[in-house]
Request: fold
Amino acid sequence: MRNIIRNYSSLLTLLGGIIAGSILGLIFGQRVEVIKPIGDIFLNLLFTAVIPLVFFAISSAIANIDPGQKLGKVISVMTFVFLGTVLVSAFLTIVAVWIFPLKAVAPGTFVPDENAHPAGFGEQIVKLLTTGEFFELLSRKNMLPFIIFSALTGFAALKAGESGKAFRNFLHSGNEVMKSLLDIIMVLGPVGLGAYFAYQVGTLGPQLFGTYASSMAVYYGFGLFYFIVLFSVYAFLAGGFAGVKIYWKNNLIPTFTALGSCSSIATIPANLTAAQRMGIPAHIGNVVVPLGGTLHKDGSSISSIIKIGVVFAMFGRPLTGVDTVLLALGVTVIVSIVEGGIPNGGYIGELLVMSVYGFPIEALPAVMVIGTLVDPLATILNATGDTVAAMMVTRVMKGRNWLKDRADLQDPAAMPAGQA
Reply:
């Protein structure tokens, strides 16, 4: 319990700031507008840090893949599994939102720009994927082109081989520095976000809480269903009833590690041990699990759709239509990659949602709050989904009898000392 409180101290203080701000907003009403600049300062610091953070996180992850590993078919199958589970979780969440509609924050308060005219399909694709000038990449309004540029930079650094070693080290160092910078900025989170939330509550009223109650009910209800039922289905597809048994037998420690650390990255050691005990070959588990910590996030996929649904409700737009659903699925895939497996990484994805759909910045604090509230279960889903994904990769690589090939790991009495 003490470890959980320590690891979630930043989450608890952030929630404390939000609660305190809510109380101030309810008590003083619109008079709390005087403290809104404090929230604006915090958000501006976050916005200026997010661009270099995304660049170093993505380019470093790609550039520092060990070229000596025989990735080959493992990478191909892993990519298919990662994309498949993320898309399944996203689409099922959309269905859940259709069945249980999310409440809007003060419907009609946020009005889209009437002077905005939608561009043609081709022009939308060009603007979605690219910019005409390099400096335009540095705007938070062009997050997706910037992500693509960052990924290409990472691949170029990897392709450069020995000549690119110094640059790859620079990317790795820059990634660590930017993560530390984000931690420093988030120290101001309880005050900054609390001030902004006080402003929202004071000006929009207590109907704000209806949005978060609705969102939390859908997220935690569907998230627990996905965790128990869908992960069991994935394990069954990987190894039949024996796969379900071996997965849940070895998934408890990673689950509690994810809950206690609030980080997919911190859960990697526990996942690697669990993968070994599940009978997953080392050359598969040692590739899928670490990359999954950064690139594979079913929990973030679910929360991304919930956030999109809430913002659509805020602006009175229906989350329906083939183009809207396809774009939501595409954004969700990008968000699951961008978030990086670190605490507070979800704020990057939230900014991407605002950027792609063209919503004004007033919508960002609402989705940030939702991201904070769903973080515990999202981390569990993100982290523990990596081992079941490794099981499915093993099923494709080794065939349906892969568990029988490692039967010694299924019998605790036959396992090596210290592993039973």
